[in-house]
Specification:
Layout (H helix, E strand, L loop, with lengths): L9 E2 L7 E3 L1 H15 L6 E7 L6 E3 L13 E10 L2 H6 L2 H18 L11 E9 L4 E7 L2 E2 L6 E6 L6 H17 L5 E5 L4 E4 L8 E5 L9 H14 L3 E8 L12 E7 L11 E2 L8 E4 L6 H16 L9 H5 L2 E5 L3 H12 L4 E6 L16 H5 L4 H12 L4 E6 L14 H17 L2 E4 L8 H10 L2 E7 L3 E6 L28 H4 L5 H19 L25 E5 L4 E5 L12 H10 L1 H9 L2 H7 L1 H18 L1
Parallel strand pairs: 2-4, 5-6, 12-13, 17-18, 17-20, 18-19, 20-21
Antiparallel strand pairs: 1-9, 3-5, 6-7, 7-16, 8-15, 9-14, 10-11, 10-12, 13-14, 21-22, 22-23, 23-24
Length: 633
């Protein structure tokens, strides 16, 4: 098994090291590149490990956790990640290797290596990561010091010097010391009693024992730097014996170990810092494509996050993507607006979505409502379910729920026989609003927005409202309880919402609007939500209409109104109306007292809202003023 040159002295050859990266390492590297290093090309420390029984140096997913303990030989590393493939090809790799080698030589020069001999084995990785294609180009080097003249000596099997009994004694001693300190890999050995001690106690009369995981007939790559360190630190004259300790996988056999007998002298000392080697002989870049090894869902997640993460590199380094990703959104209405809002939320990395709708996909829907297909109409699939399934086809990692629910509407009377259905619907919608962080109101009718507005006010939820006209759109956020509360969708009304759906002509039954209006309103609704979420005060953010808002994303307006026929957009804001029929404290308090019972009252008698808020008295007083004014005229 071993090369025996006991009868001659010859220049030593050393077995080169091999390295491999675990698949999970590439996933972790993608994460580090996107979220930590970004466009930095500064060297990054990492660690790898190698089993004592041999094999390649392994770089695993915990490589960048420098505090992680290693069960094998811990190998320190330095990684340089370039931003383009051309930059990697142009890199002066020899200079990078020499820079790491020089830092290692400094340990020899100062004598620090005696306390940390494992630092004599380090690795350098230069790399380019193509995150779009999940391709990695890299080259790995292990820096070594080049001697003035080659080391010469004999290489013999350990059996030439130690009996089987002695080998067993040495094996037991090695297991004992490495159990206490598994990272110590170089020792002094007293040949007489086979006692292992710290390297700092070594004298030329003793042997040096080095853990050598290489398995060929030659000493391993790590031995090269050890010999240079021994020579320049101890400056021995004469024969030095080095035992390259090798053990089997089951730790029961060390017969593969080698004994080196070398003649060292001061004439071999270098006058200056050494030259360095360590790149592979062909010095070629390696290429690995991990896209085929990745779980398709994980692949879609990392790819979807790519553009968002790139925003943090230069544009918005403080952008809190986790806050957006953790925002649970309730979409009330899965029509034209609901479909477009959902797509925009997915673009922002918001994947916790709940659709609420009671309609089914009709043949007119797929061309206008971006989540639906022709077959959905053929199957008369519920809109909420079809929207959920479409989102999961687009992004399988999304957490999407669908709820078929009729939202109770103010001014739409219900019979006594339907009261229980209404109470169940109110309770269900109440639970959905409580579970959400942001509620999007995207229904066709005004009165369908009343109950969700009330619930958002009751629970202090961020509510984003979007409404469409033929060539107009309105996007606004509702205020939450607190000083300076902003108005809601109903705060500009002086009457309770009523049934606006009955007795409609065909053009009034459908949302007739220019095709681009919905997409514009939906995009603005989601951008407004994102701006609010990134504001320090979030849902309580004050109105900020300038470019320099406190939100990382700029302005945080109250209302956005636009017209596509003139291509104009206006920002408006206004305070909450104390007598609002949807969000005012009296309405919220009435709901808290009787819950679904109050809602049923409003469905049958919408004027009840005006009575609770005092709006009826305000209107009556106003009428008297007008009558007095007419009499005076």
């Amino acid at each position: 098994f071993f090369f025996d040159s006991s009868d001659s002295t010859m220049a030593l050859q050393f077995e080169t090291l091999a390295a491999r990266m675990d698949v999970q390492f590439w996933y972790e590297l993608e994460h580090q590149k996107l979220h930590v290093w970004k466009d930095s090309t500064e060297p990054v420390p990492f660690h790898a490990s190698q089993a004592i029984s041999g094999g390649a140096v392994v770089v695993s997913s915990d490589a960048f956790d420098l505090k992680k303990e290693s069960t094998g030989i811990k190998v320190q590393g330095r990684l340089i990640n370039t931003n383009t493939l051309e930059e990697l090809k142009r890199m002066p790799r020899q200079a990078a290797l020499a820079q790491l080698g020089s830092s290692m030589w400094q340990l020899v020069h100062t004598g620090q290596w005696v306390q940390q001999p494992a630092a004599l084995l380090q690795m350098l990785v230069v790399m380019y990561a193509d995150l779009k294609q999940h391709l990695f180009y890299y080259c790995i080097g292990f820096p070594v010091f080049l001697p003035k003249t080659p080391f010469k000596g004999t290489v013999q099997g350990v059996g030439t010097h130690l009996t089987l009994t002695q080998q067993a004694t040495l094996r037991s001693a090695m297991l004992a010391v490495r159990e206490k300190d598994p990272q110590t890999c170089v020792f002094a050995l007293h040949p007489a009693d086979l006692k292992l001690t710290a390297l700092s106690t070594w004298t030329p009369a003793q042997w040096v024992v080095v853990v050598d995981p290489c398995r060929s007939a030659h000493p391993g790559w790590p031995v090269r730097n050890l010999l240079m360190a021994l020579l320049h630190h101890y400056k021995p004259e004469g024969e030095v014996c080095v035992l390259c300790y090798r053990q089997s996988t089951d730790q029961q056999d060390i017969s593969a170990s080698l004994v080196l007998q070398l003649a060292l002298s001061k004439g071999m000392l270098l006058d200056s810092e050494p030259q360095y080697a360590g790149w592979p002989a062909d010095n070629k870049l390696q290429r690995v494509d991990v896209s085929g090894l990745m779980d398709p869902v994980k692949l879609s997640v990392s790819s979807a996050q790519l553009n968002l993460s790139l925003m943090k590199w230069r544009m918005l380094p403080d952008l809190d993507l986790h806050r957006l990703a953790n925002t649970k959104c309730l979409l009330i209405g899965a029509g034209t607006l609901g479909c477009n809002v959902a797509r925009n939320l997915l673009m922002w990395g918001v994947t916790q979505l709940t659709f609420v709708d009671y309609g089914t996909v009709s043949y007119s829907n797929p061309v206008r409502q971006s989540l639906f297909q022709f077959q959905d109409a053929v199957d008369q699939k519920p809109k909420a379910m079809a929207a959920k399934e479409a989102c999961l086809r687009i992004y399988p990692a999304a957490d999407v729920t669908s709820v078929e629910l009729v939202v109770p509407m103010a001014g739409h009377p219900v019979d006594t026989t339907d009261h229980q259905k209404v109470l169940t619907a109110v309770a269900q919608l109440d639970s959905l609003v409580q579970a959400a962080d942001c509620v999007f109101q995207l229904t066709d009718s005004r009165e369908a927005r009343w109950l969700p507005t009330l619930l958002c006010a009751a629970y202090g939820k961020l509510c984003i409202n979007a409404a469409l006209g033929f060539a107009q759109y309105m996007v606004m956020r509702h205020g939450v309880p607190g000083e300076g509360r902003l108005g809601c969708y109903f705060c500009s009304d002086i009457s309770a919402p009523r049934d606006s759906l009955s007795d409609r002509t065909l053009d009034q039954q459908c949302t007739v609007t220019r095709p681009g209006v919905s997409a514009m309103a939906a995009a603005l609704a989601v951008e407004l939500m994102a701006a609010v979420v990134q504001h320090p005060s979030q849902a309580s953010a004050p109105v900020q209409e300038g470019q320099e808002g406190e939100s990382l994303l700029g302005a945080v307006p109250h209302q956005i109104r636009g017209q596509v026929d003139t291509f104009e957009q206006t920002l408006l804001h206004g305070p909450a109306f104390p007598m609002c029929t949807a969000c005012s404290p009296p309405i919220v308090e009435a709901y808290r007292r009787t819950g679904g019972g109050f809602v049923i009252e409003v469905l049958n008698v919408p004027e009840r809202l005006e009575q609770v808020t005092g709006l009826d008295k305000l209107k009556a007083g106003t009428d008297l003023l007008f009558e007095d004014a007419e009499e005076n005229d």
